[in-house]
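Example for tutorial group B:
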C-alpha cells in the first residue's frame, strides 16, 4: 500500500471531480492518442521516464490526490517542456479553466507555445528568467528574490513537480511564500519532493533507488547525492517541508511517501497536498 499520511479529514470537495473509471479511461486515452503533441525524446528537458506515460500518471495524481477540478485556474511552476500540460489539455474545461506554465528554460517555453498554446488557447507559457546553477546559470533573477508575475489569489491549483528537488532550502521558503500569495483561499498546492527520514537514509528495506544515496549536507536540512552536482537531486530532512509550508501559511492536508525510498507506492517521489486557508 502507498504510505499516506492524511493530516486532515477531507471535505467532499477533495473527492475526484470525475468517477474512477473515467480517470482510468482518460489516462489510457492520453497514452494512446498519437495526435497529442510530444517533444523529441532526445530533448534534455523531457526528464526521466516516458514523456506521455509520466504525464498521464500525474494527471491521475492531480485528480485523485489533489482533487483537481475541471474548471481550475492552474499554475504549473517548472512547466518544462509540457509534460504535465499536455495531459491537462484533455481534462481541463476549455471554456472555464485556465493553465499557466512558467519555467526558466526558454527552449521549453517556446516549444510549449508552438505546440500546445497554438492548439489550446487557454494554455499559456511564460519564461521566468530565474537563475539556477544547472538549468539557467545566467538567469537574471536571483531565486531569493523570486516574485511570481501574477496578482494575489490568482490560482486555485498550483503544481510543483520536481521543483523543490532542485532547490536549496532558503529558496524553497521563498517559492512557498509566493505560492501562498497567488493561491486563492481554499486553493491547493500539489508538490513532489524527497523526504529523507530514517527509512530512506539507512535504506532500511534495501530497495531504495540506488541513484539517490543521499548524504546530509552539514547540519542543514538538505541532503545531496555525493557524486552529483548538489542541486541535481535535493532531499530534505523529515519535517522541514512541513514547517516551510506552515511558515508560508499553507496547511498540509496529505503527505504521501513515494517508492523511491524502497516502499510500495503509487508514485515515485514523495508528495504533499497543502491548502490555502484550509479547505474551500
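The residue assignment follows.
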Amino acid at each position: 500500500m502507498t504510505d499516506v499520511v492524511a493530516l486532515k479529514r477531507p471535505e467532499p470537495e477533495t473527492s475526484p471531480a470525475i468517477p474512477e473509471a473515467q480517470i482510468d479511461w482518460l489516462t489510457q486515452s492520453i497514452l494512446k492518442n498519437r495526435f497529442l503533441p510530444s517533444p523529441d525524446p532526445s530533448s534534455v528537458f523531457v526528464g526521466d521516464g516516458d514523456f506521455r506515460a509520466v504525464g498521464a500518471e500525474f494527471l491521475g495524481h492531480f485528480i485523485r490526490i489533489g482533487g483537481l477540478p475541471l474548471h481550475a485556474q492552474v499554475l504549473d511552476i517548472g512547466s518544462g517542456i509540457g509534460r504535465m500540460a499536455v495531459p491537462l489539455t484533455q481534462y481541463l474545461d476549455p471554456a472555464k479553466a485556465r493553465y499557466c506554465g512558467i519555467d526558466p528554460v526558454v527552449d521549453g517555453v517556446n516549444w510549449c507555445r508552438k505546440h500546445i498554446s497554438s492548439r489550446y488557447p487557454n494554455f499559456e507559457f511564460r519564461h521566468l528568467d530565474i537563475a539556477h546553477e544547472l538549468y539557467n546559470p545566467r538567469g537574471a533573477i536571483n531565486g531569493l528574490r523570486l516574485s511570481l508575475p501574477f496578482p494575489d489569489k490568482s490560482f486555485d491549483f498550483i503544481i510543483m513537480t520536481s521543483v523543490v528537488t532542485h532547490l536549496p532550502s532558503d529558496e524553497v521558503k521563498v517559492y512557498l511564500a509566493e505560492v501562498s500569495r497567488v493561491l486563492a483561499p481554499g486553493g491547493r498546492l500539489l508538490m513532489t519532493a524527497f523526504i529523507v527520514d530514517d527509512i530512506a537514509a539507512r535504506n532500511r528495506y534495501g530497495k531504495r533507488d540506488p541513484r539517490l544515496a543521499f548524504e546530509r549536507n552539514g547540519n542543514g536540512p538538505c541532503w545531496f547525492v555525493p557524486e552529483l552536482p548538489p542541486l541535481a537531486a535535493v532531499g530534505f530532512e523529515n519535517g522541514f517541508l512541513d514547517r516551510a509550508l506552515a511558515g508560508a501559511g499553507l496547511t498540509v492536508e496529505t503527505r504521501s511517501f513515494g517508492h523511491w525510498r524502497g516502499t510500495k507506492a503509487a508514485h515515485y517521489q514523495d508528495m504533499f497536498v497543502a491548502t490555502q486557508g484550509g479547505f474551500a
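Residues 227 and 233 are 11 Å apart (CA to CA). Compare this with the pattern of hydrophobic and polar residues in the output above.
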